[in-house]
Amino acid sequence: MPLNYKKWDQLELSDDSDIEGHPNVDKRSLIRWKQRDIHEKREARKAKIEHLHAQIACNTVLYPRIQSIQASLETPETDQPRTVYFNSLVEKLETNPSKECPPGNDPSQLEQTYDGMLLSLLRQVGDAAKVEFKDSGATDDQREERIGKSLADGMKEHVVRLKETIDNDSKELEEEIKEQKKHITSEDMHDGFANKYVPPKPEPAPLPIAAKLDKPATPKTTTTEFEVINSPRQEPAAEEEAEDLDDDVANLTPSLEAFSKLPLRGFEQSFRFIQEHRDVVVPGASDALLGAAFKAQYDNKPKYSKQCVHQSLLLQYGDKLGVDGLRVFFKKMIAGDKRAEAVFMDDVEKTYAHLVNRVRISQEEAKKGGRETIMLASENDGDITFNVPAGPPPDELILGEGMEGMDIEEVRKALQFRWEIFKDLPQNLQKALQTEELVEVNKVLGEMEVEEAEEILQRLDMAGIIPFSDSGVRDETPAGRAAAGLPPICRRSRLRF
């Protein structure tokens, strides 16, 4: 295909080879004058083109309005006199003008608005009609008809002149643009064939939570252990790891945080966001969103929590559908597949309901968690004896076998002391002791503060209601352990729910 070199003829160069000057004028000055002349003409042409564009646009807006007024004056639609119609139009433009104006004009200046320009024209036509009537020498009876006709003729003349102005400006603009295109300037320069290598963007890194969730499980081993409730805890490392995992879940990246705030069922908006932010679809993003949902629900932000669940499931569904799963999933959702949308939203509701239940349980356990309690334990249930009095000692007290040498009054005092101790116990503990079930007693003790429970256990031991020293049940509280030096059975422990 032959190359076209005609475009090089359009170059406007200020070369010194075609400059013939006067011997008394140095050539460098002539070259500078030539350059300045080229640039001045170029700027003047550009300014003129912009002026013609603005003038044509302004006149194009005014022309139909002037044409409509002229038509109303020529053939009035009502019996209203033409002068009345004309004066009411002038009054309206004077009292309630619109601020609409051409681009670059000041709307606060009336003369720079479209209504201001139209008002100036109407005043000009009205003044000319009055002068013409005055010069004609017509009588007052002919005033309405003569002035009305002059107004219609004046507006018709301006319609014709404005149309000619628009046509002339359009023709002149076309010539100026044609002349401008004859010369290639620096503004017309642009890159042609360019071979610029743009390296692909690196794949976004997975979130820290992904590495922890994908960590291989520790092999299970079978060991024999003796359970000691009061022994030091052996799992701080596991707790710290769980806390770090929670931090990674809750701390979203800026892109994920913005993604989590998109509305429910905003499938088109979510798909567009994913296309613009590649770091949203990374390993661990779905789990991080679920963690943020849990934290938001815990902080009493149900709306945001449900949004996080919704966005997390969007990523999960796309991952389950394969390599191009996100595109397939969003194509169905955006197309309005009611069946697919119903399945997805049902999954969102179920997942959110499960999360709400977990948060509720966590909040209830947090209220009890971390509190130190007293617990009673024994290797065999038969080792624990309960000596719960049924009432005060009777008036006639008979000593049994093996107690013949004891003072009956001392026995009465001991039984009375046991009864008084029992009556001073809380009602719920009295009922638990009467069942003679260790589980029921531990329930009541677990609800008490440690100091209160220790005091009650000492009173129970003193009264012999639960004798720690004479039976298989022994006192493992700090005081009992120091005094007896025996293997603890009654133990104090920290229980976290």
UniProtKB/TrEMBL annotation:
<dbReference type="GO" id="GO:0050821">
    <property type="term" value="P:protein stabilization"/>
</dbReference>
<keyword id="KW-0963">Cytoplasm</keyword>
<dbReference type="Pfam" id="PF08564">
    <property type="entry name" value="CDC37_C"/>
</dbReference>
<feature type="domain" description="Cdc37 Hsp90 binding">
    <location>
        <begin position="195"/>
        <end position="373"/>
    </location>
</feature>
<dbReference type="GO" id="GO:0006457">
    <property type="term" value="P:protein folding"/>
</dbReference>
<feature type="domain" description="Cdc37 N-terminal">
    <location>
        <begin position="2"/>
        <end position="196"/>
    </location>
</feature>
<dbReference type="InterPro" id="IPR013874">
    <property type="entry name" value="Cdc37_Hsp90-bd"/>
</dbReference>
<dbReference type="Pfam" id="PF03234">
    <property type="entry name" value="CDC37_N"/>
</dbReference>
<comment type="similarity">
    <text>Belongs to the CDC37 family.</text>
</comment>
<dbReference type="InterPro" id="IPR013855">
    <property type="entry name" value="Cdc37_N_dom"/>
</dbReference>
<keyword id="KW-0143">Chaperone</keyword>
<dbReference type="InterPro" id="IPR038189">
    <property type="entry name" value="Cdc37_Hsp90-bd_sf"/>
</dbReference>
<protein>
    <recommendedName>
        <fullName>Hsp90 chaperone protein kinase-targeting subunit</fullName>
    </recommendedName>
</protein>
<dbReference type="GO" id="GO:0051082">
    <property type="term" value="F:unfolded protein binding"/>
</dbReference>
<dbReference type="InterPro" id="IPR013873">
    <property type="entry name" value="Cdc37_C"/>
</dbReference>
<dbReference type="Pfam" id="PF08565">
    <property type="entry name" value="CDC37_M"/>
</dbReference>
<dbReference type="GO" id="GO:0005737">
    <property type="term" value="C:cytoplasm"/>
</dbReference>
<feature type="domain" description="Cdc37 C-terminal">
    <location>
        <begin position="386"/>
        <end position="481"/>
    </location>
</feature>
<dbReference type="GO" id="GO:0031072">
    <property type="term" value="F:heat shock protein binding"/>
</dbReference>
<dbReference type="InterPro" id="IPR004918">
    <property type="entry name" value="Cdc37"/>
</dbReference>
<dbReference type="GO" id="GO:0019901">
    <property type="term" value="F:protein kinase binding"/>
</dbReference>
<dbReference type="GO" id="GO:0051087">
    <property type="term" value="F:protein-folding chaperone binding"/>
</dbReference>
